[in-house]
Amino acid sequence: MKIEQAVALIKDKLPEKRVTHSLNVAETAVKLAEIYDGDAQKAELAGVLHDYCKYDDLGTMYQIVTSRGLDSNLLSYGVEILHGPVAALIMQETFGIDDEEVLLAIKNHTTGRAQMTKTEKLVFIADYIEPGRQTPGVEEIRELAYNQGSLDKTIYEISKRTVLYLISKDINVYDATIACLNYYNYSDERVKDD
Ligand SMILES: [Fe+2]
Ligand SMILES: [Fe+2]
């Protein structure tokens, strides 16, 4: 899919604020791709499309998860995690996107996971630090991402903040998010940028 088509798709479906966020994520992912020698085209496409299903009807998303063979455990956690996997499935089946890295980046942007591909990392981080984000502490994450030279440390710090937030709200934490946290914990010597 060409980038213009992707932009037209989200403009057709998402409210203006979410379109702005999506374009910001794409632009940020491209910047990170330049710093970290990633694939800017894949990062941009996944960035534009990552929130395509953000406001989809919950019942429909539940049905897609159960009927299309997505991990049924997705349904046992905060509903915010569903729109990534559902969007990836729709992009593949309805819009014919077949690039595995693009699909994975869309799919896993809501949860993270261990052993992410470069494009997944770029989009996961860009979603957290795009210029419109004002989460407390986001500046520290921007500094890490842009100036400290480690995607993996940045992912760990984002996962840590996300998990702490979820716990503070008594929201259960999806397995892949815990796996992401553990995998990228750089206090553990096993972890190297990959
Ligand atoms: Fe999202
Ligand atoms: Fe997003």
TrEMBL record:
Give the EC number(s) listed in the UniProt record: 3.6.1.41
The residue ranges crossing the membrane are none
Record Gene3D superfamilies: Hypothetical protein af1432
Keywords from the UniProt entry:
Hydrolase, Iron, Metal-binding, Nucleotide-binding
Task: Quote the catalytic activity from the record.
Answer: P(1),P(4)-bis(5'-adenosyl) tetraphosphate + H2O = 2 ADP + 2 H(+)
Q: Which residues form the HD/PDEase domain?
A: 14-141
Q: Which GO terms describe its molecular function?
A: bis(5'-nucleosyl)-tetraphosphatase (symmetrical) activity; metal ion binding; nucleotide binding
Q: Which domain of life is it from?
A: Bacteria
Which InterPro entries does the entry link to?
Answer: Diverse_Catalytic_Enzymes, HD/PDEase_dom, HD_domain, YqeK
Matches recorded under CDD domains: HDc (cd00077)
PANTHER family in UniProt: BIS(5'-NUCLEOSYL)-TETRAPHOSPHATASE, SYMMETRICAL, SLR1885 PROTEIN
Q: Which NCBIfam families does this entry report, sorted A to Z? A: bis(5'-nucleosyl)-tetraphosphatase (symmetrical) YqeK
Q: Can you name this protein? A: bis(5'-nucleosyl)-tetraphosphatase (symmetrical)
Species source reads Staphylococcus arlettae
